[in-house]
Predict the structure.
Amino acid sequence: MNIAQSAFESLTTADARPTAIVIGTGFGGLAAAIRLGAKGYRVHMLEKLDAPGGRAYVYHQDGFTFDAGPTIVTAPFLLEELWQLCGKRFSDDVDLRPMDPFFRLRFDDGRIFDYCGDKQP
Ligand SMILES: Cc1cc2nc3c(=O)[nH]c(=O)nc-3n(C[C@H](O)[C@H](O)[C@H](O)COP(=O)(O)OP(=O)(O)OC[C@H]3O[C@@H](n4cnc5c(N)ncnc54)[C@H](O)[C@@H]3O)c2cc1C
């Protein structure tokens, strides 16, 4: 039985909560599922890959771990909001610290570019 079959079969339950199906377990799908769950929905998530994350998928090969995409948290308030919706505090689970510069790009000719947000570098 594949994941989709198992999710659909589990819809036939005595659970009276409304049911929502979220397709895709990227940040968008995960955030939608959390919001629906906080509103009282029984949420099923379907994912075509073997693990969640979408563009934030993590690949393992030859003993190395590759981060596929996002590394910079650009909107921490969105994460805080999700925790709040679940009656939790983000800062109790994640120690997020502002970086200065926000990020640094290094080019192969030695030049660097610092992004400092609104303030001047
Ligand atoms: C290289 C890179 C760097 C980035 N860096 C940052 C960063 O530093 N900070 C930041 O905030 N953002 C960053 N982003 C952007 C951020 O990663 C994306 O905006 C975000 O992850 C998108 O999430 P999503 O849920 O909308 O889509 P996706 O992550 O694309 O998720 C979609 C999911 O749906 C699944 N799916 C699709 N079709 C089906 C189907 N038919 N059935 C089942 N599953 C399906 C896919 O497999 C996937 O898991 C970066 C993106 C990239 C590519």
